[in-house]
Write a sequence for this structure.
């Protein structure tokens, strides 16, 4: 997939840890090695051995560091450092229509009758034509060629990573992860019948890790039906389809069950920056490998109920690693994709603070349980928090009537609210408990 880290093998003798990786294949620093997944060096380790509610990069700041992923940099739909969406760039950076190439006519898939359960084979056979491989092409600078008397050579594009996507609209709209296409100069989409298309980036939402690209297929692209992730229950069967490890021969199919619902995780970040929090994730034991990012997770009616995004490996001393995968629920992904296609802001509540974890020592001083609350490290002027009276140094212990369980808990509560909602915030300030009413606003649009 895009520019995220691969799942690393865990050797015996390591202490218990949960390693989170975006299930991407490739690196922005080197071409991918198809089928190996060895180009993706970034990995993050969760701060708890039992649940993956927060994660920090292995080379990044400690757990108590400030995070601004949710609140300090309000973002709607935008693309970050992605010249694919910039018409002023060179020809390789613009959407290139593919002339005289069209996908074969295909009947659009319809949901199966209520109560009917498909086999894994049937799910794969129905959905496979609409599952695509996405290649992130990035520009490499030119320079002198020492083997040819210093002659200047032009810049060139190389595949920097591959991922997966799925066509959800017959006009050629494809849902994938933002990290699959992030930083691309151009995007190539390859279908299961080995036809390639130059894709146009419609929009990307980094804070939710969703992007939409489009290919030209004469309005008759094969599609997959989108389901309702709110109807899922733990134990339901699921099927994942994606370009695992970039292996030749088409997508890989894995199957499993819904292991848990409503998970909140923080994605791996770049360097010392922390990735965004993702909420309402579906946890599954179906194998989610590098190359699966952006691919569909199906229920047993052949409907997409999630977008495969993260993989994690639990390792204990002397134990065999067990795979855990996470998918963005389709209800969340669909609302984001609809906003991107309509070129409207993705509804995202903004409160206007940066915050960090409360250390165990600080918890003891404040006489609150460990992993309770977040400490406000910065309040943006004239933001909802500022107008409500929240200050730097406050510890927010409750939000919208719910106890705040660390950074992940704060993000989980906030990201479920909508712009315009008014919520209660309980803070500790100088030993006193104070309550504030905060009216959230829409995150600003940055393109």
């Amino acid at each position: 997939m895009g520019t995220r880290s691969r799942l690393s093998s865990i050797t015996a003798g390591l202490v218990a840890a949960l390693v989170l990786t975006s299930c991407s294949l490739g690196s922005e620093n080197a071409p991918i090695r198809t089928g190996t997944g060895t180009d993706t060096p970034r990995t993050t380790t969760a701060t708890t051995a039992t649940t993956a509610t927060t994660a920090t990069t292995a080379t990044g700041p400690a757990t108590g560091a400030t995070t601004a992923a949710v609140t300090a940099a309000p973002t709607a739909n935008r693309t970050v450092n992605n010249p694919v969406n910039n018409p002023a760039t060179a020809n390789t950076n613009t959407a290139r229509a593919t002339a005289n190439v069209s996908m074969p006519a295909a009947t659009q898939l319809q949901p199966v009758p209520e109560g009917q359960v498909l086999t894994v084979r049937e799910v794969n056979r129905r959905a496979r034509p609409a599952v695509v491989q996405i290649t992130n092409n990035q520009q490499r600078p030119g320079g002198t060629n020492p083997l040819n008397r210093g002659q200047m050579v032009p810049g060139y594009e190389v595949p920097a990573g591959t991922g997966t996507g799925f066509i959800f609209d017959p006009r050629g709209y494809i849902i994938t992860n933002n990290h699959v296409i992030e930083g691309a100069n151009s995007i190539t989409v390859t279908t299961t019948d080995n036809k390639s298309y130059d894709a146009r980036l419609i929009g990307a939402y980094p804070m939710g890790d969703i992007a939409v690209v489009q290919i030209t297929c004469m309005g008759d692209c094969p599609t997959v039906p989108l389901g309702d992730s709110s109807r899922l229950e733990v134990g339901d069967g699921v099927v994942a389809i994606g370009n695992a490890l970039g292996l030749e021969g088409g997508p890989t199919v894995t199957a499993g069950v819904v292991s848990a619902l409503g998970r909140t995780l923080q994605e791996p970040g770049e360097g010392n920056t922390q990735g965004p929090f993702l909420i309402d994730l579906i946890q599954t034991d179906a194998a989610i490998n590098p190359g699966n990012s952006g691919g569909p997770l199906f229920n047993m009616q052949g409907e997409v109920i999630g977008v495969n995004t993260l993989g994690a490996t639990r390792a204990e001393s002397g134990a065999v690693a067990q795979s855990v995968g996470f998918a963005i629920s389709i209800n969340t992904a669909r609302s984001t994709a609809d906003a991107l296609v309509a070129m409207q802001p993705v509804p995202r509540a903004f409160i206007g603070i940066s915050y960090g974890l409360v250390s165990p020592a600080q918890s003891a001083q404040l006489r609150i349980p460990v992993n309770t609350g977040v400490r406000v490290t910065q309040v943006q002027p004239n933001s909802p928090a500022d107008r409500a009276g929240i200050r730097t140094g406050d510890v927010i212990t409750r939000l919208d009537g719910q106890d705040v369980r660390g950074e992940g808990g704060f993000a989980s509560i906030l990201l479920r609210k909508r712009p315009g909602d008014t919520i209660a915030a309980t803070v500790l300030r100088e030993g006193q408990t104070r309550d504030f009413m905060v009216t959230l606003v829409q995150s600003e649009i940055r393109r």
Summary: The longest strand covers residues 252-266. The helical segments are 120-127, 178-181, 330-341, 360-366, 384-388, 406-414. Residues 1-17, 26-83, 85-107 have pLDDT under 50 and may be disordered. The CA atoms of residues 268 and 274 lie 7 Å apart.
